[in-house]
Write a structure and sequence with these properties.
Layout (H helix, E strand, L loop, with lengths): L1 H31 L4 H13 L1 H12 L3 H17 L3 H6 L9 H18 L3 E2 L1 H25 L15 H33 L3 H26 L6 H23 L2 E2 L2 H23 L6 H18 L2
Antiparallel strand pairs: 1-2
């Protein structure tokens, strides 16, 4: 079991650094090729920051453990709300920095669509195409809104005007080589842990893998909270959850069918939806998540994780 834990930890570490390198290389290459920063932000950055979760899910399908892929996405969405927003709230109140009602409505629509498709029994070809069509509509909406708001390139993640072509190539190489390697370690270690604990791959995906792939978002949000700048956290969580549902399972489902375990239909999908609905209270009423609410979110997440093992 110790070896499996080391494989999971090592895989997560490689994924974090490889994902960051891929984003940095791809963003700077795109800008150097003259692609507008707005388009880069909506596509390259969005997909790049989700690359670790995507590669893990694809690797899980190829390795014959698709439940791990599904658990990763559903668990990550739940962790993004209860954990990623709960921990920083203990440090400083997480405010709703701007009107996020439209983004929240998109996330809820994606969640309901995902659950409806899950009741078909699996995410195969046609279910994946429906999810990817929803992703296309979401990206189109983001593009039109960003043009109206004249989103600039100054805050574009990974952009560096002074970076050389050699460094861009190195970042891309490290990212492209590191992501599948890290995913392989993570998936293999996770399967080993599932066997050691006598639980399903779905449970490992919902817990260890989900929390692990949410660590970059958690670290960023905690750092922002320490600087009293956690206002961007909620918008990032909404965007990440939409991409998890529509892009990651949409693409992984094209690689191979992803059956939906019965226990996920009975509990996990509804926990994800319930956490998403709870987030709506803060967004619709523009209410910050204070320490008391943060403690409640963490308590709910702890109770959910414990229920998975008993």
């Amino acid at each position: 079991m110790l070896f499996d834990l080391l494989m999971v930890a090592g895989g997560l570490l490689v994924l974090v650094f490889a994902g960051d390198a891929l984003v940095k290389g791809a963003v700077n290459l795109s800008l150097r090729l003259g692609i507008p920063a707005l388009i880069v932000g909506l596509t390259v950055v969005a997909f790049g920051t989700s690359a670790p979760e995507l590669i893990v899910s694809v690797q899980a399908v190829l390795a014959g453990v698709p439940a791990l892929a599904l658990g990763n996405v559903v668990g990550s969405n739940t962790a993004n709300i209860l954990l990623v927003l709960g921990i920083p709230a203990l440090i400083a109140a997480v405010p709703v920095a701007r009107d996020l009602s439209r983004d929240y409505a998109i996330m809820m629509a994606a969640s309901v669509l995902f659950i409806a498709l899950a009741f078909s029994g699996q995410f195969g070809l046609w279910q994946s195409l429906v999810l990817l069509a929803g992703l296309g509509l979401m990206l189109g909406d983001c593009y039109l809104r960003a043009r109206r708001e004249r989103a600039g390139a100054e805050a574009l993640e990974g952009a560096d005007e002074g970076i050389s072509g050699g460094w861009i190539a190195l970042y891309l190489l490290l990212g492209l080589a590191g992501l599948p390697l890290g995913a392989h370690f993570l998936v293999e270690g996770s399967v080993g842990l599932a066997r050691s604990f006598g639980v399903s791959e779905a449970v490992i995906g919902l817990t260890i893998v989900a929390v692990g792939t949410s660590l970059p978002e958690l670290a960023t949000t905690v750092a922002a909270a320490l600087r009293r700048e956690a206002g961007v956290a909620m918008g990032n969580v909404l965007g990440s959850n939409v991409f998890n549902l529509l892009a990651i399972i949409g693409i992984a489902g094209l690689v191979g069918p992803i059956p939906v375990p019965a226990e996920m239909l009975q509990l996990d999908l509804w926990v994800m939806l319930g956490a998403s609905a709870l987030l709506g209270l803060f967004i619709w009423f523009r209410k910050p998540i204070g320490r008391g609410w943060g403690a409640l979110l963490l308590l709910l997440y702890g109770a959910y994780v414990v229920s998975l093992f008993y």
